[in-house]
Automatic annotation (TrEMBL):
<keyword id="KW-0391">Immunity</keyword>
<dbReference type="InterPro" id="IPR003599">
    <property type="entry name" value="Ig_sub"/>
</dbReference>
<dbReference type="Pfam" id="PF07686">
    <property type="entry name" value="V-set"/>
</dbReference>
<protein>
    <recommendedName>
        <fullName>Immunoglobulin domain-containing protein</fullName>
    </recommendedName>
</protein>
<keyword id="KW-1064">Adaptive immunity</keyword>
<dbReference type="InterPro" id="IPR013783">
    <property type="entry name" value="Ig-like_fold"/>
</dbReference>
<feature type="domain" description="Immunoglobulin">
    <location>
        <begin position="21"/>
        <end position="133"/>
    </location>
</feature>
<keyword id="KW-0732">Signal</keyword>
<dbReference type="GO" id="GO:0002250">
    <property type="term" value="P:adaptive immune response"/>
</dbReference>
<keyword id="KW-0675">Receptor</keyword>
<dbReference type="InterPro" id="IPR051287">
    <property type="entry name" value="TCR_variable_region"/>
</dbReference>
<dbReference type="InterPro" id="IPR013106">
    <property type="entry name" value="Ig_V-set"/>
</dbReference>
<dbReference type="InterPro" id="IPR036179">
    <property type="entry name" value="Ig-like_dom_sf"/>
</dbReference>
<keyword id="KW-0393">Immunoglobulin domain</keyword>
């Protein structure tokens, strides 16, 4: 598997979500880790990180969330997990063993508010392209 990570940063006001990794090669069956860090102004007391996934010719969709995580979240069903480290302001996505079906673009996002409609002060979504290389 080839994992290409686009070094990008999303900004909403002074708040930001960052995914900056460069490119790495991961073979099918290897562990996957996609890093995501965020920064919100000191006045923000709670941050809610999310991961979205976008498969070719499809719109992005919610993949894994920190708040209200359910076993039916697509990321959980596909064997992914993420740990919200509030001290280090990170929400890294990982999977013990990659599969060809994991090939997609992964977006990290964070918000300082969460509502039923999913609206809030979204800090932006940044993409990580995860492609498999079959040798």
């Amino acid at each position: 598997m080839f994992c290409s990570v686009l070094p990008t940063e999303g900004i909403y006001g002074a708040d930001s979500v960052t995914q900056a990794e460069g490119s790495v090669i991961i073979f099918q069956g290897d562990r996957v880790r996609l890093n995501c860090t965020y920064h919100f102004s000191a006045s923000v007391t709670a941050v809610y990180p999310f991961w979205y996934v976008q498969f070719p010719n499809q719109p992005p969709r919610l993949f894994l969330r920190d708040l209200g995580r359910e076993d039916w979240d697509e990321g959980i069903r596909k064997g992914f997990d993420a740990t919200h480290d509030k001290k280090h302001k990170s929400f890294h996505l990982w999977k013990p063993s990659s599969e060809l079906s994991d090939s997609a673009t992964y977006y990290c996002a964070a918000s300082d508010t969460v509502t039923r409609t999913g609206r809030g002060a979204d800090s932006g979504m940044m993409g990580i392209v995860l492609n498999h290389h079959v040798s």
